[in-house]
Amino acid sequence: MRHVRPSALALALLLLFSLTACRPAQQAPSAAPSQAAASPAPSSQEPSQAPSQSPSLADDETPDIRFAVLSGPTGVGAAKLLDNVDNHNHLNHAGYAYTIAADNSELVAGLSSGEIDIATVASNVAVNLYNKTGGGVKIVAVGTLGVLHILESGGKTEIGSMADLAGRTVWAAGQGANPEYVLRYLLAENGLEAGKDVEVVFADASEISAKLLSGEIECAMLPVPAATAAILKSEGSVRAAIDLTEAWDGLKNGSQLVMTAVVARTQFAQEHPDRVAAFLTDYEASIDFVNGNVDAAAEIVARLGITPSAPIAKQAIPQCHLAFLAGTDMVAAISDYYSVLWSIDPAAVGGSLPDSGIYWTGG
Question: Is the pTM of this model over 0.85?
């Protein structure tokens, strides 16, 4: 069932949506809107808003794959897949039903209840859910690497590296989730300590954006598309100073910054390995399309409500570092990332590193 939820599409709310791709589960706000109409069905998440049937399904059909994504960068790579469903284009499994959610908590609830089969979630949410459910989900792919950027306001060009943050105050979104851990790690690897050498103030993405645009603050960390929206709206007074994915890669320590994981319910993967494999083929094709057809993809992303507008999507897509990793490549990338998170704060991965059972490599 494609869930359709209302939104005012106000910039502040959509900026907040982009952050939810990095946050652990919490009370969910309303999801991003969608254009396609379909027949209603009950929803346990928001009783007042009846979800609707995916346009590719007849009323009496059961979907082969119930797929869910987050509004914001976590959902960008899947945009073409969702567009294919809306337009009845052939996929490996025509019987998809999809949901665009506003918060990780909706996806965690759906995976836990068995109402969702496969979902894109923040990588730290994936490992915490695996630990909390005793192996109830498996990571089947990686879809997004890093989406975080350090922004500088006031038309200044004083910041060009992590070392340049010494003595500054950085306003940051994502306390207690991937963004905080990434910032702390990159500061430490550059000889700086958060709270000592660099003051870090955590706030919502919408508040940070407003302060950047007003000139009240000079330095902030935001994910795309929130960062992209702030830059475009500033008309030149806010710039992207550091791409944290590039800063991470510059460490050359063998690990990758991995902020999105695609997870499947373990029972679903065990009972339907062919469907998981087919989904991965469709998802990889979707990521390839988005990366290779930015203008067309931007229109799709905006229509789905994953970003506020096509111009923002067009600028944000290259900054999302979309990458499809599965099998052994996926295991190597995300396991190394989890080791880094654990070294920063064991609570980041639920208290302990996951065993190899968290990964699905086919069959």
Answer: no
CB-based burial of residue 188 (10 Å sphere; 0-12 exposed, 13-18 middle, 19+ buried)? middle
The CA distance from 314 to 149, in Å, is 17
Q: Provide φ and ψ at 200, rounded to 5°.
A: -115, 125
Question: How far is 337 from 121, CA to CA, in rounded Å?
Answer: 15
Q: Which amino acid is at 195?
A: G
Strand, helix or coil for residue 257 = coil
Note whether 225 and 151 are within 8 A (CB).
Answer: no
pLDDT per residue as tens digits for the range 12-24: 433 433 444 444 4
Spatial neighbors of 316 by CB under 8 A, at least 6 apart, are 73, 76, 224, 225, 227, 228, 307
- DSSP state at residue 115: S
If one counts every other C-beta atom within 10 angstroms of the C-beta of residue 196, the result is 8
CB 236 within 8 A of CB 106: no
Q: CB atoms < 10 A from the CB of 55, how many? A: 14
In the numeric block, the tokens 């359709």 are attached to: 4
pLDDT of residue 36: 32
SS3 call for 284 = helix
Which residues in the chain land under pLDDT 50?
1-60
Other beta carbons within 10 Å of 262: 31
Give the helix, strand, coil percentages of the chain, each rounded to 5. Answer: 40, 20, 40
> Three-class SS of residue 144?
strand
Mean pLDDT, rounded, of the chain: 84
